[in-house]
Amino acid sequence: MSGRGIQFEINKHLCLKDPQMTNYGQKLISESIVLFHEIGFEQFTFRKLAAKMDSTEASVYRYFENKHTLLLWLICWYWEWVHYLIDINIKNIEDVERKLKIVIHNIVNASTESPLTSYINENMLHRVVINESSKTYHIHEVDVEEKHGHFKSYEELVAKVSSIIVEFNPKFKYPKILASNLFEMANNQIYFAEHMPDLTDIKNRKDKHIDLENAMVEMSFKLLS
Amino acid sequence: MSGRGIQFEINKHLCLKDPQMTNYGQKLISESIVLFHEIGFEQFTFRKLAAKMDSTEASVYRYFENKHTLLLWLICWYWEWVHYLIDINIKNIEDVERKLKIVIHNIVNASTESPLTSYINENMLHRVVINESSKTYHIHEVDVEEKHGHFKSYEELVAKVSSIIVEFNPKFKYPKILASNLFEMANNQIYFAEHMPDLTDIKNRKDKHIDLENAMVEMSFKLLS
DNA sequence: TGTATAAAGATAGTAAAACTATCTTACTTT
DNA sequence: AAAGTAAGATAGTTTTACTATCTTTATACA
């Protein structure tokens, strides 16, 4: 066992054995982030992951049922981490405008915070979230998975942001729409800037995260004014 | 050959043979919409589709390279259809506020319009778009596909909506963000209402499309005011 | 120090998915 | 009637997505 850092409680149903608890599990997590990033969800296989780890398919299957639950586990970890960042960053802050700005900063820019966990490359995981996260819930079995609480991390995070929106303007009628939309927008607009530039005003420059953050702050404040 | 209705020009690279031109192709399109709707993209196979059509796998492969391009073809058809609806519905309308309202109505509610093409169930196709469309561009090969113009139908539709937003308020700084966000929001919020209710204020009732339409009009007008 | 036990490695095998190839039949078009 | 095209029938390949079992290695605890 090794590895600096916090552990988050991820839904037990998502893995057969907690990868945070063993060296092998931590390596599995770190290499799967790299592999998802390199080849994408569709081309990702446990065979390729095992090869990358100098291990075997059977060993990987001892931790996760399939690549879908592995991805879901990673995405949950990511949302738990963003939730944690938001919590510590808005602690003791009274001004609700500043609070909302911090929230938006952490949604768009989480990966610029200093890393917390040695075996997780938060920056690369953020890339995986942008590219693949919508696949975790756009599935035919969505209702079963939702019943098992597989989306709880995301739902709770949206609920937190929604509560801050309500605090900002208690008369605003659509706090949950705005909250979930902030998350979807953050991922989509970065993706569009990189791959489908006609769909966004954000230019694919180094500072695109900052540009997007500014746009999102501006639009949110206008909506809530 | 048979079948009432308009034909749209769909990118030639998406199919090996235009399914709109033959009886077999039209049946392929209509049955694939049903099958995508029934079992979702991941479980969908050409073998199952062929069985449903009382045909063979090899015959299906004569029209489409794989299920990904078939889905993309369907989604493109859908956006061409929505584009067409918007064009005829805003024709001769001067008032830009009314224009934007019609646009939003057609984005959220397209499938309530009377059907145009005998072998396409627009309502069911709308369901497929809500459930699966994000998978067409969240792929590792996105840059190649974008270069081949596979997303042109969507991009042009977003451009049209963006131009109406500019007309509404020429000073608004993020017309493309708002336009693409309207489409993403329309799909997501309906999906959330049905499967992840904590993520939206829209209740999963019969009139949810109308509720969402109202919310989207309200928010857009506030942003553009 | 020896023994239990659990974690991972090695190997093998299956069913289905995702194609490719080829040959035949049926229907049109000229 | 001949030629051409579309679809059916059949078969085969590679890869994916698992499952099973047996062996080895590391750890732990008594």
What does this structure look like?
The structure is a homodimer of 225-residue chains. Chain A is mainly alpha-helical. Helix content of chain A is 66%, strand content 0%. Chain A has helices at residues 23-43, 46-53, 57-61, 67-90, 96-109, 122-132, 134-137, 142-147, 152-168, 175-195, 208-224. The longest helix of chain A has 24 residues, at 67-90. The N and C termini of chain A lie far apart (51 Å). The structure holds a DNA duplex (30 and 30 nucleotides).
Compact description:
The structure is a homodimer of 225-residue chains. With 225 residues, chain A is mainly alpha-helical.
Give the arrangement of secondary structure elements.
The structure is a homodimer of 225-residue chains.
Chain A: H1 23-43, H2 46-53, H3 57-61, H4 67-90, H5 96-109, H6 122-132, H7 134-137, H8 142-147, H9 152-168, H10 175-195, H11 208-224
Helix pairs in contact in A: 1-2, 1-4, 1-6, 4-5, 4-6, 4-9, 5-9, 5-11, 9-10, 10-11
Chain A binds a DNA duplex (30 and 30 nucleotides) through helix 3.
Overall 3D shape of chain A: globular
For the termini of chain A, the CA-CA separation is 51 Å
Global Rg of chain A: 18 Å
How helical, in percent, are the residues of chain A?
55-70%
Count of helix runs of chain A: 11
Mean pLDDT of chain A: 95
Structural class of chain A: mainly alpha
- The low-confidence parts of chain A are none
Strand content of the residues of chain A, in percent? Answer: under 5%
- Largest β-sheet summary of chain A: none
> Oligomerization state of this entry?
homodimer
Order of helices and strands of chain A: HHHHHHHHHHH
How many extended strands of chain A? 0
Q: Biggest interface, and residues per chain?
A: A-B, 47 and 47 residues
